[in-house]
Amino acid sequence: MTQANPSPGLSQAGSISALEVMSYSPEETQKIGKRLGGEAKAGDVFLLVGGLGSGKTCLVQGLAAGLGVEDVVSSPSFVLLKQYRGRLPLYHIDLYRVDRREEVEDLGLEDYLSGPGVMVVEWADRGWGVWPQDHLLIEMDYLAETQRRLNIKAHGSRYEVLLQNLQQTWS
Questions:
Q1: How far apart are CA 92 and CA 95, in angstroms?
Q2: How many CB atoms lie within 10 A of CB 90?
Q3: Which residues contact 4 (CB under 8 A, 6 or more apart)?
Q4: Whether 143 contacts 51, CB under 8 Å
Q5: Strand pairing of 18-23 and 3-6?
Q6: Which 3-state string (H, E, C) describes 24-70?
Q7: Average confidence (pLDDT) over 77-95
Q8: Average pLDDT for 16-33
Q9: Backbone angles phi, psi at 45, to 5 degrees
Q10: What is the DSSP string of 69-121?
């Protein structure tokens, strides 16, 4: 069963700005992603940070399902970016093979950031400083074979609303 706890951190408006969610299966991780994808809007940016096996791609699979993507979603580690069609385009970026922020800047992701779709970035910590100030940061931790901790942090009022809606799902 997925559990959610508001983390300390309220915005000035009193809405939550951080949430910790525990997932006990890949299906639960996908369910979290599906909820986010169902509420995603054009221009949304989801930044995923976590080690190998922490569930980043699993979360993206759920997000894609929430956007109505019917294709099989896999990690674009070797091509860096995959685009999927759903009710909004999904731009799935994986920076695992990128070593420096300058390499991220050279990828020309500005078109995707200002495009009509939703951007989700795995290994987003390799591009700090490139991403927009407003985004949803999801830090994922592998705790056990079937247990993951997701620390979700809203940066910007749009994402505080999204986070509040996500919390209500598990309250």
A1: 10
A2: 26
A3: 19, 20, 21, 22, 166, 167, 169, 170, 171
A4: no
A5: antiparallel
A6: CCHHHHHHHHHHHHHHCCCCCEEEEEECCCCCHHHHHHHHHHHCCCC
A7: 88
A8: 92
A9: -130, 120
A10: --SPP---TTTSEEEE-SSS-EEEEE-TT--SHHHHHHT-THHHHTSSSEEEE
CA angle 148, 68, 97 (to 5 degrees): 50
Quick one: pLDDT at residue 12? 41
H or E segment and range at residue 167: helix 157-170
C-alpha 49/C-alpha 15 separation (Å) is 23
Q: What is the pTM of this model?
A: 0.88
Residue 13 in this model has a pLDDT that exceeds 70: no
What pLDDT sits at residue 46? 97
Tell me whether strands 45-50 and 3-6 are parallel, antiparallel or unpaired. unpaired
Amino acid at 76: P
Residues contacting residue 144 through CB under 8 Å, at least 6 positions apart: none
